Every structure is written in C-alpha cells, then in structure tokens.
C-alpha cells in the first residue's frame, strides 16, 4: 500500500479508469439484461466519473486529514464538500459531461448501426457502412473534446473555458436552427444553452481568466481598470 501511495496523479488516473472500464465491461457482458450501446454509455460514464472523483479527488483529501492526525470523514462526505466548494464550476462540469455522454452514446449507436441488418441489406452496404464508420470517428473525436473540456474546467484552465464556449455555442446554434426548421418537434438544447449562460457569468469568467481586465465607472466619470 505504501507503493500505491507514492503513485502520481496520472498513474492513479490510468489505474482507476482501466479498472473501472474493465469492470463495467465485464458487468455488461455477464448481465442477463442486454442494454443498447447508447444506454450502456449513459450507465458507464457516470460510474467512471464517480470512481475518478472518489480515488483522484476525495482520497487525497482524506489522506491529508489522516496525515494531520485527525479522523477522516467518509469518502462520500468529502466528495460532497468538494463538489459544493465551487458550485458554478461543478455545474459547468456536469453540463459538459452531458454533452460528452450524448456524443459518446451517438458514436456507439452509429457504430452499431454500421454493422446492423438494415445496412447489410442495402445495395451499397459496403460504402454505407464505411460512411457510418467515418461519421462515428468524427463523433468520437467530438466526444473526446467534450471530455477534455470537463477535465480542463475541473482544474480551472483558461483553454477549457474557450473550448466549452465553442462546443456549447455550436450545440446551441445547431439545435436552435433545427428547432426553427421543425417547430412542431422539440430539438432545443437546454443543457448547452444553460452552459453558455454559466460560462458568460462574471464570477465564472474570473475563475478561468483571473487576469482579464474588467472596467467599472469611477467617481469622476473615467473608466478604472482592475485585474
């Protein structure tokens, strides 16, 4: 156990995610209830995120408390404290996870469709399957960007703010255009729109851009800059 305690954060991250992914895969494989690929993604992603939070976020804090000679609270209580310390950042990360999970689920559904009976029955089945595989690769890349944004937002990187802004702007714009074209159906993306609102809030911008110059009117009518 001493050797494990000396692992770097990246070693713990690799270990946690490999074990979590393998355990979830074996769980789906041995389960008598067969879920669709999209549903499996919606189950797997929250489970993996929870394990990452426990081992990579809550566990180090519990170690610090024990090192100080105090009795550490439960992992769930520590995790609750961590998530409520930065409510806006936590909310942003959750919204980014929604986008990442949807993209990952769509990727798996497209891959599943490329090998489905309907595609195989088409006269141009090979070319259609190839197109679907290529489109799934594009969607998979988008899902990776969403997940990268979650990590960047959690560790408060400015590039993650810009990445989240671009991804959510595109998602909100595309859903808005489709909604206008098909007003009788619901295509509006409330998650991306809410994420945009949060990203543009001043307290959030100050978290990711602490050096940005904000101006406010001074008493003599001139703008005063402050960092």
What layout of secondary structure does this protein have?
Blueprint: H1 2-5, H2 9-30, H3 37-67, H4 75-85, H5 87-114, H6 117-120, H7 125-154, H8 158-181, H9 190-200, H10 202-208, E1 214-217, E2 223-226
Antiparallel strand pairs: 1-2
Structural class: mainly alpha
Q: How many strand segments?
A: 2
Mean pLDDT: 85
Task: Tell me the strand percentage band.
Answer: under 5%
Q: What's the alpha carbon Rg, rounded to whole Å?
A: 22 Å
| Unreliable runs | 223-227
The helix fraction, in percent, is over 70%
Succession of helices and strands: HHHHHHHHHHEE
Task: List the domain count as a whole number.
Answer: 2
Strand order of the largest sheet: 1-2
Termini Cα gap: 45 Å
DSSP helix count?
Answer: 10
Largest sheet: 2 strands, antiparallel
Gross morphology? globular
Structure description:
The chain is mainly alpha-helical. The protein has two domains: 1-85, no CATH class; 86-210. Helix content is 76%, strand content 4%. The chain has ten helices and two strands; from the N terminus they run ααααααααααββ. It has helices spanning 2-5, 9-30, 37-67, 75-85, 87-114, 117-120, 125-154, 158-181, 190-200, 202-208, and strands spanning 214-217, 223-226. It has a two-stranded antiparallel ribbon with strand order 1-2. Helix 3 (37-67) packs across helix 4 (75-85), helix 7 (125-154) packs across helix 8 and helix 8 (158-181) packs across helix 9 (190-200). The chain is globular. The relative contact order is 0.08. The model is unreliable at 223-227 (pLDDT under 50).
């Amino acid at each position: 156990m001493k050797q494990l305690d000396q692992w770097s954060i990246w070693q713990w991250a690799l270990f946690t995610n490999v074990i979590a992914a393998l355990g979830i895969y074996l769980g789906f494989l041995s389960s008598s209830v067969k879920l669709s690929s999209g549903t499996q993604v919606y189950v797997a992603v929250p489970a993996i995120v929870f394990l990452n939070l426990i081992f990579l976020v809550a566990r180090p804090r519990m170690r610090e408390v024990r090192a100080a000679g105090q009795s550490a609270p439960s992992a769930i209580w520590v995790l609750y404290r961590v998530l409520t310390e930065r409510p806006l950042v936590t909310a942003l990360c959750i919204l980014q996870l929604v986008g990442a999970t949807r993209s990952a689920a769509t990727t798996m559904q497209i891959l599943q469709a490329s090998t489905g009976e309907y595609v195989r029955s088409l006269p141009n089945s090979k070319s259609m399957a190839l197109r679907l595989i290529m489109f799934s690769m594009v969607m998979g890349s988008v899902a990776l960007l969403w997940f990268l944004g979650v990590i960047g937002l959690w560790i408060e990187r400015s590039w993650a703010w810009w990445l989240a802004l671009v991804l959510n702007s595109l998602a909100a714009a595309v859903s808005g255009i489709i909604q206008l074209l098909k007003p009788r159906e619901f295509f509006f993306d409330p998650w991306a729109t809410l994420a945009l609102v949060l990203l543009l809030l001043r307290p959030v911008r100050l978290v990711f851009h602490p050096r940005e110059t904000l101006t406010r009117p001074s008493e003599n009518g001139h703008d005063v800059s402050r960092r």
